[in-house]
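Discussion board: Methods & Data

I've been asked by a reviewer to show the raw model output for two of the constructs in my manuscript, not just the figures. I'm not sure how much to include, so I'm pasting the format here to get opinions. Each protein appears as its amino acid sequence followed by a line of C-alpha cells. Is this the kind of thing reviewers expect to see in a supplement, or should I convert it first? Here is construct A:
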Amino acid sequence: MALISIFPPNLGFCLKPHPPQSHNLQLCSKAVPLIPRKKLIKPIVNQALSKVEIPLRRTGKHHPNLWGDDFIQSLPKHPYEAPLYAERCGSLISEIKDMFSASAENVSPLLVLVDNIERLGIDRHFQKEIKEALDFIYRHWGECQRDLDITALGFRILRLHRYPVSPGMLGAFRTANGQFLCSTAQTEEVKIKGILNLFRASHIAFRGEKILDEAKEFSTTYLNQAMEKSEISSNLLQEISFNLEYGWYSNLPRLEAKKYIQIYGENESRARMAGNEKLLLLAKMDFNAIQSLHQQELKTYSRWWRESGLSKLEFARHRHVEYFFMACAICEDERWDPTSIDHLPEYMKVLYMALYETVNEMDREAEKIQGRDTLIPSKDAWEGYADAMMQEAEWLATSHIPTLEEHIENGTVSLGTRATTLQPVLTIDEILSDNILPKIDYPSRFMDILCVSLRLRGDIKSFKGEIARGETNSSVACYMRDNPGSTEEDALDYIKNLLDERLKELNWEYLKNDGVPTCSKDYAYDITRGYLHFYKERDGFSISNKDIQNHVTQILIEPINM
C-alpha cells in the first residue's frame, strides 16, 4: 500500500494549526522501541535502466477519475471574497472577541467558547484570545474539577494546546466497577454530553494512561446505547454519531467544521444563547469564503493536471482531486537530472518531468523561507521512497513474503509519507535549523512512529483489495508467515493492538515540547490524520467513489446555505 499515486503540485494553503505554547509538557510516557531499523536493501534504480527489459505491466483495475476538468471549470464563482463580505466578517470577529471579555475569569463559559470556536473552524481569528483564556483556565484548573463534562472538556483542550495536565483528575468520576458518572442532578441529555466529552478526551492518550483506556471503553458503549434512546435530540444524535464514526485520528478539521456548523445551527437552545448566532454566522461565511478560494485553486490545479499529460497514465490511481481535498502538497522522483529520461518509456517520461519540475519549484519556495537550499534532504527522501518501492516490486516479482519486521521497515518508507510531508513543512513560514529539522524529519521518532502508524492502518484496510490485485505482501500476510498456524483474525488483532499503542506514542511525540515549531508539527500530524481518514473504512484512494466522494463534495463543491 503506497499513499502516493500520482503526485499533485504544491498547494498554497495549509491545515488548521494549533497555537504555539511555551509550557513544558512532561508526562510519564516511556518510549517503547520500534522494530530496529536496519539498512534497507538498495535495489539498483539509478543505473542503466535502458538495459532492463521492461515486463508486461499489471493493471491496477482502479475506477476512473471522478472529477472531470469540464465539471471543475464550470464551478460558479461566488461573492464570498468581495470587500463587503470581508467587512462583515471583520465586524463579527470584533464582536466575538468581546465575548471573551464577557466570559473572563469564568472557567466553564471560557472552555465552552473555545471549544465551539475551534470546532466551528474559526479559531485562527482568535489565537491571542484563546491563549489568554487557556492561560487563565490552566492557572485555576485545580479549582474547577467538580463536573465530568467540564473536566473532560478542559483536559482535552488543555492537552491539545500542550499544557501539562494529567488524566488522573478523571478518577474522581470513576466508580469501582469502571463506570464514569455525571451528577445525578443533571438531565439525561446533559449527562450524555458529559460522556461525549469524556469520549473525545479519551483519544488524546499517551502510553500507560490506563484511565483513558477505561474511559474510551466505557464511553463508547454508553454512547452507542444512548443513540437508541427516543428522547435524545436530533442535533445531539448527529454529534454522537459523527464522533463515534471519526473519533480523533480519522477526523479532518474542515469536515468537522462543516458538520458542526450544521449541528450548531439545529440546536435551538444553543442558538438562543447570547452571541451564539454570531459564531454561527461567522463560521458559515468563513467556510464559504475558504471554499471559494479553494475552488479557484482547484481550477488551476485541474488545468495543470490535464496539460501535464498525467491524466493519460493508465496504471496509477487518478486521485488528484482527492489529494487536493486532503490539502496535501506532494510531488517528486528518482534521479535529479532531466537529461537522464531519454532511455525511459514514454509514460515514465511524463511522470518524471512533472515530478522534476514541481519538486524543484517547491524547493525554490522552501529556500525563500529557510534561507538555504533544501533540495538535498528532499532528494534523499524521494530516492529512499523509490528504492523502497523497488524492493516491494522485487518481492512481488519473486513471490517472496518478508518477515513482519522487514515489511514494516521497508513499508514505512514505501508509503512516501516522509517525501510528501517534508517539503510542505519546509514551506510553512517557520525556519527549521539543521539541528531542529531531524526532530521532525528523518531520523526522528516522530516521523518513524507516524510512518509505522500509517503503514499498519493502511495494511489493515487495504490488504484484501491488494490480494485481489495480485499484491500478496502486507502486515497481515507477514504476521501469518512469522507465526505458522495463526489465522487472519489473529493477525488483525495483533496489528490493531500494535497500531493503538503506536498512535498513543504519536500523541506524545506530537504534543511534547522539543523545540520544533508547533505549526510544523501540526502540519505533519494533520497530514497523517488526513491519510488515516482515507483508510478509515477501506483504501479510500483506490475506492474513492463512496464516502470520500461525498466528503470532497461537502468541502470543495457545496457551500453552506446562509
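Construct B, same format:
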Amino acid sequence: MGKKVKKEVEPPPKDVFDPLLVESKTAATVVLMLSSPEEEVLAKACDALYKFASKGDENKVTLLGLGAVEHLYKLISHEDPIVRRNAIMVLGIMASNHDVKKLLRELDVTNSLISQLAPEEDVVIHEFATLCLAHMAVEYTTKIQIFEQSGLEPLIRLLGSPDPDVKKNSLECIYLLVQDFQSHAAVRELNVIPPLLELLKSEYPVIQLLALKTLEEISKDGETRIILGENKGLDCLLQILETNEFSDLHVEALAVLGNCLEDAHTLQLIQQTGGLKKLLSFVGDSTVPDIQKNAAKAITRAAYDSENRKILKEEEVEKCLINLLEINNDGVKVAASEAISAMCENSASKRALGLQGIPQLVQLLSSDNEEVKEAAVTALANLTAASPSNARAAAEAEVIEPLVNTLNAQRDGAVANAAAALTNLATQEPFRVNIQSRGIMRALAGPLRSTNSQVQSKAAFAVAAFGCDADARTELRNAGGLGPLVELLHSTNKEVRRNACLAVMVCASDELTAVELCRLGSSMVSPVEEKQELSGQRSSLSKSSTGEKGLRKGKGKKEDEKMKEVAQIISKVQDEINLENSHWLPPPDFILLDYINDASRTILPLTTTRGQVVALAQFVADKMGGPIERDKLHDFSWELHVSEVEFELKSNVVPIGKVKKGTFYHRALLFKVIADRIGIRCSLVRGEYNRAWNEVELVEDSPQGIAGLLLPPKKYMVDLMFEPGFLIKQGSAEADQYKHI
C-alpha cells in the first residue's frame, strides 16, 4: 500500500469571523442582541429571554421596560422559523402581564399572531400564538380585533390539533370571544359544535371544563341549541351527569342543559328519551348546592313557556322543587322558590305545590336572608292567588303573622307580595278577621308611603280588602294611613290610582273616616280621570249585584251585615281585576330581565358610548332573529311568530322578551328599553308602516394635533336590521332608506 498523504486543510477565508460564543448575565445586553442581523444570535437571545420571563412577573416588567416587546413584535414575522418560534414563545409568556397586553394592543399584534395559526406552521408556534391571543382576549377591544380579522376560523380548526396545549389555548380564546353575543352566529356558522363535543371526551379536565363553559355561552342562542340536539349533544351532557368520575363537570353540564330546556321541542325530546326523568332524579340525589341551584334556575327558565310547564308537570317536577326548599343553602332556596312561582302558571302544578310546598315556604319567611324572604313570599302570593284551597293551606300553616311582619321587610318585592298574599287570604271571612286582629292596617301605613308603584298598588288594594271593618278603618286613621292613601290619587300609575280610589270608596263608608278624607282634600285633589275611574269602579260594582247603592243603604244596617256586604264587594272586585289582568296585563317579562342583566354584565363595562351602542345593537339583533339581507326582508315572516305568542298568552299585549323574531319596531323598542336601563342615551322614533328606529348622539374624536378640542355631537341612526351595530349618519341616503319602505 502506498503511503497516506495528509490532506491539507484549507485556511478559512480572511473576511469571515471565527465563531464566537456569546454569554451575558444581564437582560439589557440580551435585549440589545434582538437587533442583531444574525439569525443564530436572535434565536439564542429569544431563548434566553423566554427562560428569564418564565421565572416571574417581575422579570416580565423588566423586559417591558427595556423595550423587548417592540423588538419581539418585529421578530414574530421573521423569515427564519426558529427565530419566529422563539420570539412568539417569549411574547406568549409575557402576555400574561397587564402592561404587556396593553402595549401589544397598541402595536396591533393580533393580525400577526393570527397569521401564525396557519396549518403549515410549527405546533410550538401554534401553542404560544394561541396562548398570547388567549391572554389578550380578556379585553373587549382585542376580541373585536380577533373577530374582525377572521381569527375564529383558525382557532376553531386548531381545536383538532394533536397537541393538548394548542387545544386548551385555542378553546380558552374561543370561550372568551363567545362571551360577547356577536360571536355566537359566527361560531355557529363555522360548525363549532362537533369539535366542542369531541373535546368533552378529552383526558384533560381543564379542556373538558372549557368546552362545557363555551357550550353554555353559545347554547343561549336558540339556533345553536337545535344544532346541539342534532349532533346528539344532549346525550353527551346526560352521560357526563351519569358518570361519577366527572363530578367536577356536573355544574357546567347542567348549565348547558338548563339553556336547552328553554325550548319546548328540545324539552320534549329530552322527555321522550327518558333524559328529563334522569335529570330530575340526578338533581334529587345531588348534594352539591351549585347543581341544585342551577337546576332550579333551569326549571324557572323552562317554565316561562306554557308547553314546557305541561311537560314538567308530567314529570312531577313539583316533588323536586319542594325537596330543594329543604336544602340548607340560601341560593338553592331562592332558586327553588322562584321556580315554584313560575310553575304556578300551570293550575295543576299550583294545586300540587300548594299541598306540600306551602309549609316550607312559610318557614322561609322567618329567614334572616332578605332575598330568601322575598322569593318565598312571592311564591306564596302566586300560590294563593285565586286558589281558596291554597289560601286555607297557608292559613293552617300559620302564615298570617309572618306575612304581616313581612310588610316591614327591606325589599320592595317582599312587601308588595306580602300585601298581595294577605289580600288573597282576605277573600275568606275567618282569615280576614284573623288578619285584622293582628294590626294589618297599622302595618299597611308604611307601604302606603312607599315610592315603589308596585308596593303602593298592592298596599292600596289590601286597604280596600280590609277597610270594610270599622275597627280596621279606625286603626288606619290612628296610624296616619289616610294621608298617604289620598296622595296616591295623584299617582301617574293607573293601577295605583285605581286601587287607591277603591280603597277610598271602601274607607269612606263611615262618617268619621269620610270626614277625615274630606279634610285631607280627597274631594278636591282628585282630578277628572280619578273621578272617572272611581265612577267606573262603582259601575262595575253595581253590575255585580251590590254596588254603590248597596253600600249607601248599608249605612243603616248593622255593622256585621255591612262588613259581610263590603267583603263580598271586595271579593267580586278582586275577581274582576284578576279577570281583567288575565286579558290585558302582560305576564312578568323574566326574559327581558335576563336581557338587562346580560347587557349590564357585558355591555355596560365598555369604555366608550360608541362601543356600548354597537354592542347593544348586535345584542338586540341577535335576540330577534339576527341580521337580515335587504333583498330578503319580505321573506322575514315575523307576523306568524308574534301571532303564535299572542295565542299562547291569550292576549294581544306581548312581553317584548317573548319576541324571538322581530322587525324594525320590535328591535327599536327592545334597544330603547335596555338602553334606558343601562344608561345609554337614545331616542325611539316611530315611522310609518311598522318602521321605527333609534337615534343616538356621539362625539367624534378630536383631530390629530389638536388636543383638547371638543367637537359637537353628531346624530346617528342605529342599524338593528341589516348590519346590526352600523351607525348611519342622520340625513344621509342610507338613513332615508332605513326609514322608508
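Answer (T.O., handling editor elsewhere):
This is acceptable in a supplement if you add a one-line summary per construct. For B, something like: The two ends are 104 Å apart (CA to CA).
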